[in-house]
Prior knowledge:
This protein is of the alpha/beta class. Helices cover about 25% and strands about 30% of the residues. The protein has helices at about 10-20, 50, 65-70, 130-135, 155-165, 185-195, 245-250, 290-305, 365-380, 385-390, 395-400, and strands spanning about 5, 30, 70-75, 80-85, 90, 95-100, 100-105, 110, 125, 145-150, 170-175, 200-205, 210, 220, 225-230, 230-235, 240, 255-260, 270, 275-280, 285, 315-320, 325-330, 340-345, 345-355, 355-365.
Amino acid sequence: MRRVVVIGAGQAGLSCAAKLRAEGFDGEITLIGDEPLAPYQRPPLSKAYLLGDMPLERLFLRPEAFYAEQEIALRLGAPVTGIDPGAKQVALAGETLDYDDLVLATGARARPLPEDQGGALGGVFTIRDLADIDRLAPEMRQGRRLLVIGGGYIGLEAAAVARKLGLEVVLVEAAPRILGRVACVETADYFRALHQGHGVEIREGVGLASLLGDDQVTGAELSDGTRLDCDLAIVGIGITPETELAAAAGVALDQGIAVNAMGQTSVPGIWAAGDCASLPFEDTRVRLESVQNAIDQAEAVARNILGAEAAYLPRPWFWSDQYDVKLQIAGLAREYDGVVVRDGGKAVSHWYFRGSRLIAVDAMSDPRGYMIGKRLVEAGAAPDQAVIADPAGDLKGLLRA
Ligand code: FAD
């Protein structure tokens, strides 16, 4: 009986296990997670779930019965402490499990604020898992003053939720502008204006020197010497892939657990997928921190474990909800040299070009722009920029061009 062990019961781990069964694998599957809960979705943690608009049951990716039906042995609250690639075994508290194929789907953790900047004070939160929200949600009360550190998507989403709940919000971003790592100036301008319109104070180009307070955070000193008061702080300064297990087992790392297009690591029989894995993309390596990548890459690994030998070609897409705006992103905005703005009033989209080739689209409350943009990006198209820039231009016609 062939045995597949999957470490990490998150989006990628579940997707791999489920796909193995869907493809007819009849061996043993063990899905091991260190969190006490069955696999759940993370995106609502900084959106509807944090707002209190979504019950816990809706977070779960599959009903409880699924695991028994599919004969997937789910081991929860069970951190894997080591991998022995020679013996093909993984170690958990007090036992070892044998594997024929091992999938690393260990995800990532939120980068904490260093302790010498006040990271260990009470009232300081990161947002990565349900336990974080269980601690944070009761603190998000009307009239309290929240400091958000970091102007990426998690920080901005948390700021939007906080305003809806009636907190006062200041967001600081050390880089010259919000969304500097992931989006163009135009998209940053759009979201800055959106947040300011909802009463968030955004300070860019100014970092945090240190949080202030004895046990509990009471304020912050910024890098320009400004001091401000706050009752709680959310730290959204990026994530670090969970690579320690892999590294200790001799698996090669390169900005994450390095995999080839098939999802194989440098060690035979060990695969990786999801937030922990860095994969070849164009002329570089990337980690794609998104649900769609976690699903697609993990499913590709499942097929390849079964011998498909199929390369995974990522088709990145991502979304974010802030206030009543839904942002949808297709493609990866890297190494672009021009951005075309399509401003249709409520529906706005930003189209990223490398030369004449469309490589990504940010669509704000513009599902049509997103849908057409995604197809053009995936086709490697060079659409007419004048048609895109004209809000009355025939976008759909670009698909036929
Ligand atoms: P994870 O979901 O992190 O799962 C990994 C699991 O492995 C975790 O449960 C971890 O505890 C466990 N683990 C790690 N080490 C061990 C070990 N040694 N033993 C056992 N278990 C272990 N993506 C989008 O596309 N759109 C969004 O809007 C969006 N919003 C997000 C909002 C938030 C607040 C967060 C946190 C993420 C968001 N993402 C979003 C990203 C998306 O959720 C991730 O890309 C996705 O969850 C990655 O799945 P994964 O399985 O690789 O990792």
